Amino acid sequence: MSLADFLPPLSRTALLLDLDGTLLDIAPTPDSVIVPPSLLDALRGLVVRLDGALAVISGRPVAQVDALLHAIPTAVAGEHGGATRFAPGAELERVPLPSAPAAWLVAAERLTAAHPGVLLERKERGFVLHYRAVPDLGPALRVALEGIIGSSDSFALMQARKAWEIKPRGADKGTAVAALMARAPFAGRLPIFIGDDVTDEDGMEVARAMGGAGLKVGAAFKDPAAVRTWLAAALRSNDGWPGVVGLGKKARGSAPGPR
Ligand SMILES: [Mg+2]
User: Fold this and answer.
1) Which end of the chain is more exposed for a tag (fewer CB within 10 A), N or C?
2) Which residues sit with Cβ closer than 5 angstroms to ligand 1, an ion?
3) Does the pLDDT of residue 203 top 80, yes or no?
4) pLDDT digits (tens, 9 = 90+) for 39-59
């Protein structure tokens, strides 16, 4: 048995993909990612093969994802499911969520000013502190951010890759999967969700609960390059997903792998 034996055939699959760390190699800053042309070719081909049932679900704003991927995916859920474009060229649909108080952003700016190398990324409703350049600061930044959000129950502090994100509760990658799968061309298919991060686990869980699969980079796939190779190989397949050169038994089935 290989991973491919657990997956629905292409003709019944809705493919839901995280972007950073899944399709794209992690870069020193969010702006410096490289999008290989071969990835764009594979996505273009898969949109056709899957009758449109291909979406990207990212923490980035939808416009950034569309700029990076030339708007090839049929749908893009951005901001961890907070905003979604359900069809090519369609208006964004937003989940009603609160915005982070201005005082929190002021406090975050103070943190970045006090710690060179820490990068503040503003989002529509929250913000991210990236500390890739100064990894030792991770724990201290967490404590500072916990102090900033205090006892707020409408926002959550999430760990991303060498980053902490403050985002409103009420939307996550799981709600994004459910919203996409309720609409054409995804409805009636089985979701395969691929992600690499803690925030992707909500999406994997919902995909599995719907009878599909949740696959993790680092377990089912060695790295984003392995995901890209697999997607390109799928275009040459009749209807089954190709096998995966994973990291052993953990690659099998849809059990979540180690971080
Ligand atoms: Mg990711």
Assistant:
1) N
2) 18, 20-21, 196-197
3) yes
4) 999 999 999 999 999 999 999
Instruction: Please confirm, yes or no, whether 18 is among the known catalytic residues.
Output: yes
Q: Which CATH superfamily is domain 102-168 in?
A: Trehalose-6-phosphate phosphatase related protein; domain 2 (3.30.70.1020)
Q: What SS3 string covers the chain?
A: CCHHHHCCCHHHEEEEECCECCCECCCCCHHHCCCCHHHHHHHHHHHHHCCCCEEEECCCCHHHHHHHCCCCCCEEEEHHHCEEECCCCCCCEECCCCCCCHHHHHHHHHHHHHCCCCEEEECCCCEEEECCCCHHHHHHHHHHHHHHHCCCCCEEEEEECCEEEEEECCCCHHHHHHHHHCCCCCCCCEEEEEECCHHHHHHHHHHHHCCCEEEEECCCECCHHHHHHHHHHHCCCCCCCCCCCCCCHHHCCCCCCCC
Single pTM value for the model: 0.83
Q: How far is the CA of 98 from the centre of ligand 1 (A)?
A: 24
Q: Where in the chain is the domain with CATH 3.40.50.1000?
A: 3-95+171-251
CA of 53 to the centre of ligand 1 (A): 20
CATH 3.40.50.1980 assigned to 3-95+171-251: no
| Cα of 197 from ligand 1 centre, angstroms | 5
pLDDT at 226: 96
> What pLDDT is stored for residue 256 in this prediction?
42
pLDDT tier, 179 (very low <50, low <70, confident <90, very high otherwise): very high
